[in-house]
Specification:
Elements (H helix, E strand, L loop, with lengths): L4 E4 L5 H9 L3 E4 L10 H11 L2 E4 L3 H8 L6 E3 L6 H14 L1 H5 L3 E3 L1
Parallel strand pairs: 1-2, 1-3, 3-4, 4-5
Helix pairs in contact: 1-4
Length: about 110
């Protein structure tokens, strides 16, 4: 199973990226990708090109995912999740679903 690769939206805490990296999960933040100020459509296209599952609190990505099953997946997080809960949940998704399981899929954490 191919390892999942996450693309974290700008509202996801940097501590989440650090926690995932400590667990060996491939993570790229929006800032690291030089995508600050890009439109949601541009982020979606970037994630598709990089084969990275988008992790977001922005429900606009749910609309984009519903328009096409040709995407590397979206994990939608409610804002009330702690950093620890988020890291544990994303790690579990990485272990159970992996890249193939997330392809064209939306997961609510």
């Amino acid at each position: 199973m191919a390892s999942i690769r996450y693309y974290l939206d700008e509202h996801i805490a940097e501590a989440v990226a650090k926690g995932l990296r400590r667990r060996g999960v491939d993570v790229r933040t929006l800032a690291e990708a030089g995508m600050l100020g890009a439109s949601d459509e541009e982020h979606f296209a970037f994630a598709r090109e990089e084969e990275r599952t988008i992790v977001t609190q922005d429900d606009d990505f749910l609309r984009l995912a519903a328009q096409s099953a040709e995407h590397p997946g979206v994990v939608y997080l409610p804002q009330r999740r702690s950093v620890g809960e988020t890291v544990r949940g994303l790690t579990l998704i990485a272990e159970v679903l992996g890249r193939e399981g997330m392809r064209g899929h939306v997961e609510f954490l």
